From TrEMBL:
Origin species: Scleropages formosus (Asian bonytongue)
Pfam families registered for this protein in UniProt: AA_permease (PF00324), SLC12 (PF03522)
InterPro entries in alphabetical order: AA-permease/SLC12A_dom, KCL_cotranspt, SLC12_C, SLC12A_fam
Compartments reported by the entry: Cell membrane
The protein, known as: Solute carrier family 12 member 7
Source organism phylogeny: Eukaryota, Metazoa, Chordata, Craniata, Vertebrata
Disordered as annotated region, ranges: 1-74
Tagged with keyword Iron: no
GO MF annotation list: potassium:chloride symporter activity
PANTHER family the UniProt entry points to: SOLUTE CARRIER FAMILY 12 MEMBER 7 (PTHR11827:SF47), SOLUTE CARRIER FAMILY 12, CATION COTRANSPORTERS (PTHR11827)
Domain of life, per lineage: Eukaryota
Residue ranges, compositional bias (Acidic residues): 23-32
UniProt similarity note: Belongs to the SLC12A transporter family. K/Cl co-transporter subfamily.
Domain Amino acid permease/ SLC12A: 141-302, 423-701
GO CC aspect terms: plasma membrane; synapse
Length: 1049
């Protein structure tokens, strides 16, 4: 394909090294090309670089082929020699000779196929040469697209579509399909590469496999077209199955198609397996057949103006007849003085005698003969403008022809009438026609062979689409203007003696179209069987579909042997269907799916303003891609809605499979950018308003401790997080490293991610490096999250052995974390003995007990509800305990709690436990009273929101001042309890405990003085004795209890 260059050794000069001559000799390839290595040796050994051959930066200069030298002694030596290291395509040879040379070396195969072919030779296997791509726009893009677009549908079905749909609707079908293809954005690298690198491996694999299936079924369609031409128009007597009755002819034809199609598939697969070089040799022949067939059709149209061809059509009444078994369109004819019946008479009557019993319609109507090709100026286009759709078995009739209907039409199917073999509709014809425009990717699939792919692919593809669109649209008009309507609707040419309908229009002979279409279909079938396995091999080698990895292997030269076997097997499925009209809509779905996602990928890249998306085509706009995507989706459902759903289901299954089992590939896909934009938009929306109470759920910051080897200490904390969140909401797994960020952060993050993966925890990792753990946890609580996606709850493990350790750092860190979480107005969840918590594989049965002592806004009741959503806790029941004093109305309290849970729609068992006031910690009791009094006071004062916050702050300030006074009075308020009980009461009263109001402290101290000794047992308030004793008590405290449940958090 490239020009041939020869490097001439330069004679040794005085100033050059004696080895210069030997080193200047560069290896000459068989095809005349110079290897880059040889070129580099020439530059290094020459001693100096010539200004005519290179620039200062070493890049080869585009020099003239003629060398001008002042030294007259060397003129004769260099005369006729071409010393250019690089030159343009048309510089050295005249344009006509160069074009003929490239046409002679034309191939419709991709670069990888040619390399496989060369690798089969001995020298090619020993020495690999690197060739610069030399194809231009015309040879590399325009002609392959033309050869792929113009094919079987044009020669075998376009005339039938024009006759069935009419000129106007056929023009609409062609325009719609061509517009759909015209809006497909032309990309470099092939559709699979572009989609997978733009939309990700999931979309790329799904659409790539759909494109592979479409290409494979296209091979089936071309093979079926080849066999149809062979059995119908070339050698009709070669049929293996012959129908004895007319009604069995269709089934016999399908069986013949299956037998011959399978044989043809095996032969083509064997040719591809043996070597694609044989396919390469015939590429120019196949292209010439397509071009000659098109030219013969246009020449025949022009000839109809001068002299229309003679193809008579016999009509019985207004019905078209199959012109197989008779030569004369007559009922009877006169020989001498006798009237005898003709062959036509014998087809409709039970005997050749004139008094025989004949078909009613045959007896009532006369036969007439019209010209099947009346010519361009005949005005027949007015009769072919409108559609003639009908069901299966509908007779082909000429409009306006006089006819008397018959009463009995039961025998029409057994008589030699021309009728529809399938039910026709506009949607069906769209699906059948669309494969004729599916060759637009031929240029982009050859991007590696092109000298300037970015310029050649858009230009060549658009020119090819424009050319083929003109050919199709002009053929629609010309067919309607030149051919009779009954002939157009005759799919197989039965009314014109089994001639190909488009062949009747061709000049000089119908055989030009028959032979040309036959070889065109053969070439297209071979090309499909050559390209589809390589597409499957590319997908398999990417490793995104695990079960396809075996198809990435092949022969030593890279030929995809296993992929070829799978392609032949799938292609055989289409051949067993044995109907070109049934296979065409199937491959239309897969190609439309591919084109849809090509447009989607381009639109997404443009809207996201991806930095590496820089299309050179200046007329491109993202609305063009959306228009093409909409047209593809519409055509899918117009042509066949059930095929469209099946194709989408197949693509969806492949997508989910790749997402679930496929290998991870990071190709910088646009879906990630789309997700990033959506996340940014959602975060901005979340910032606009605080979350509502009904949407509140714990957004967790999980504080993990790491051991010396950067391993997670408490892995069950992650299990508990998974069970609590169930994949919903925000989860941030944070850890603190003592040291520098650069040395340990990466290892710690990998350790956390592996632990999260093992425990199936969905969330984010956040590692902070700090000088100490206390500051690190503080930084995490302050900075974790982004915008509206911030945590509102902190989950941590209870420090182990904190009482027995000599170092108080763990205690102080824990206390400071509690303080900072409270200061940040966040909920704190502390998991004690977390290593004993159930794993994700366990299934628990029993009860989840909640001790609801301090009113916390419902968080304690929300946590077990969320836990029960997970399968680990799903069989557990919820049990709610609350504490009452001896003088409380516990029965009413239980009823109020049950009503409260009912209104919250929580299913839980309620139990009220009566305890002596001395058994309740001071902090718990006083904190409850503070909240109760605050709620009552705010209700009575009816303050505004700002005033309420100010009042709450004043109560808090007063409570802080009361801590000091409480510490001074602590010794006087201690009760004669045992050592354990004293520790439990004294701990909340420490300096790190709580804020207590003065009045509450005094009242609690008074109650302690009046209480007396601690009871030995806990009284359950729902006993009969307690009920009798409570009847005479005053119930003034009921108001306070009800207010307790009405408080807001």
């Amino acid at each position: 394909m490239g020009d041939r260059f020869v490097v001439i050794p330069v004679p040794k000069r005085e100033e050059e090294s004696p080895h210069a001559v030997d080193e200047d000799i560069s290896p000459v390839e068989e095809d005349g090309g110079v290897s880059p290595a040889g070129g580099r040796q020439h530059e290094q050994s020459g001693g100096k670089r010539s200004e005519e051959s290179t620039r200062e930066d070493g890049i080869p200069r585009e020099s003239s082929p003629f060398i001008s030298n002042a030294d007259t002694e060397q003129d004769s030596y260099y005369d006729g020699k071409n010393m250019a290291l690089f030159e343009e395509e048309m510089d050295s040879n005249p344009m006509v000779s160069s074009l003929l040379n490239k046409l002679a070396n034309y191939t419709n195969l991709t670069q990888g196929v040619v390399e496989h072919e060369e690798a089969e030779n001995e020298e090619g296997a020993k020495r690999k040469t690197v060739k610069n791509p030399q194809m231009g726009t015309f040879i590399g893009v325009y002609l392959p697209c033309m050869q792929n677009i113009l094919g079987v549908i044009l020669f075998l079905r376009l005339t039938w579509i024009v006759g069935t749909a009419g000129v106007l609707e056929t023009f609409a079908i062609v325009f719609m399909c061509c517009s759909c293809v015209r809006t497909v954005t032309v990309v470099t690298g092939g559709s699979y590469y572009m989609i997978s690198r733009s939309l990700g491996p999931e979309f790329g694999g799904a659409v790539g496999l759909c494109f592979y299936l479409g290409t494979t079924f296209a091979g089936s369609m071309y093979i079926l077209g080849t066999i149809e031409i062979f059995l119908t128009y070339i050698v009709p007597n070669a049929a293996i199955f012959a129908a004895e009755k007319k009604e069995d002819a269709a089934e016999a034809m399908l069986n013949n198609m299956r037998i011959y199609g399978t044989c043809c598939l095996l032969f083509m697969a064997l040719v591809v397996f043996v070597g694609v070089k044989y396919v390469n040799k015939l590429a120019l022949v196949f292209l010439s057949c397509v071009v000659l067939s098109i030219l013969a059709t246009y020449a025949g149209v022009i000839k109809t103006v001068i002299e229309p061809p003679d193809f008579p059509v016999c009509l019985l009444g207004n019905r078209s007849l199959e012109n197989h078994d008779f030569d004369k369109c007559l009922k009877t004819e006169v020989f001498g003085n006798a009237t005898v019946s003709t062959e036509l008479w014998k087809l409709f009557c039970d005997s050749p005698f004139l008094n025989a019993s004949c078909d009613e319609y045959f007896a009532s109507n006369n036969v007439s003969e019209i010209q099947g090709i009346p010519g361009l100026l005949s005005g027949v286009i007015s009769d072919n403008l409108w559609s003639n759709y009908g069901p299966t078995g509908m007779l082909v009739e000429k409009k306006g022809q006089p006819s008397l209907p018959a009463q009995d039409a039961s025998r029409d199917g057994y008589l030699p009438y021309v009728f529809n073999d399938i039910a026709t509709s506009f949607m069906l014809l769209v699906g059948i026609y669309f494969p004729s425009v599916t060759g637009i990717m031929a240029g982009s699939n050859r991007s590696g062979d092109l000298r300037d792919a970015q310029r050649s692919i858009p230009t060549g593809t658009i020119l090819a689409i424009a050319t083929t669109s003109f050919i199709y649209m002009s053929c629609v008009v010309l067919f309607g203007a030149c051919i009779e309507g009954v002939v157009l609707r005759d799919k197989f040419g039965d009314s014109v003696k089994r001639n190909l309908v488009i062949g009747t229009l061709a000049w000089p002979s119908p055989w030009v179209i028959v032979i040309g279409s036959f070889f065109s279909c053969c070439g297209a079938g071979l090309q499909s069987l050559t390209g589809a396995p390589r597409l499957l091999q590319a997908i398999a080698r990417d490793g995104i579909v695990p079960f396809l990895q075996v198809f990435g292997h092949g022969k030593a030269n890279g030929e995809p042997t296993w992929a070829l076997l799978l392609t032949a097997g799938i292609c055989e499925i289409g051949i067993l269907i044995a109907s070109l009209d049934a296979v065409a809509p199937i491959l239309s779905m897969f190609f439309l799916m591919c084109y849809l996602f090509v447009n989607l990928a381009c639109a997404v890249q443009t809207l996201l303003r991806t930095p590496n998306w820089r299309p050179r085509f200046k007329f491109y706009h993202w609305t063009l891609s959306f228009l093409g995507m909409s047209l593809c989706l519409s055509l899918m459902f117009i042509s066949s809605w059930y095929y469209a759903l099946v194709a989408m289901l197949i693509a969806g299954c492949i997508y989910k499979y790749i997402e679930y089992r496929g290998a991870e590939k990071e190709w910088g896909d646009g879906i990630r950018g789309l997700s990033l934009n959506a996340a940014r938009y959602a975060l901005i929306r979340l910032e606009e308003a605080p979350p509502h109470t009904k949407n509140w759920r714990p957004q967790l910051l999980v504080l993990l401790n790491l051991d010396a080897e950067l391993g997670v200490k408490h892995r069950r904390l992650l299990s508990f997080t998974t069970q609590l969140k169930a994949g919903k909401g925000l989860t941030i797994i944070g850890s603190v490293l003592e040291g520098t960020y650069m040395s340990k952060a990466a290892e710690a993050k990998r350790s956390e991610q592996s632990a999260m993966l093992a425990e199936k925890t969905k969330g984010f990792c956040h590692v902070v490096a700090s000088s100490n753990l206390r500051d690190g946890f503080s930084h995490l609580i302050q900075t974790a999250g982004l915008g509206g996606m911030k945590h509102n709850s902190v989950l941590m493990a209870w420090p182990t052995s904190w009482k027995h350790t000599q170092d108080s750092v763990s205690r102080r860190n824990f206390i400071e974390t509690v303080r900072e979480t409270t200061a940040a107005h966040q909920a704190l969840l502390v998991a004690k003995n977390v290593d004993g918590f159930p794993g994700n594989q366990e299934r628990l049965e029993g009860t989840i007990d909640v001790w609801w002592i301090v009113h916390d806004g419902g968080l304690l009741m929300l946590l077990p509800f969320l836990l029960r959503q997970h399968k680990v806790w799903r069989k557990c029941k919820m049990r709610l305990f609350t504490v009452a004093q001896l003088d409380d109305n516990s029965i009413q309290m239980k009823k109020d709690l049950q009503m409260f849970l009912y209104q919250l729609r929580l299913d839980a068992e309620v139990e009220v436990v009566e305890m002596h006031e001395r058994d309740i910690s001071a902090f718990t009791y006083e904190k409850t009273l503070v909240m109760e009094q605050r709620s009552q006071m705010l209700k009575q004062m009816q303050l505004s929101r700002t005033e309420r916050e100010r009042e709450i702050q004043s109560i808090a300030d007063e409570s802080r001042s009361s801590i000091k006074r409480k510490n001074r009075l602590g010794n006087e308020l201690q009760l004669p309890l045992d050592h354990t009980r004293q520790g439990e009461v004294a701990e909340p009263a420490s300096a790190s405990a709580q804020l207590i109001h003065d009045r509450n402290t005094k009242s609690h101290a008074t109650l302690n003085d009046k209480a007396g000794p601690v009871p030995d047992r806990v009284h359950m308030t729902w006993t009969k004795e307690k009920l009798i004793g409570e009847r005479n008590r005053q119930r003034e405290a009921n108001v306070g209890v009800r207010d307790l449940f009405n408080m807001k958090p």
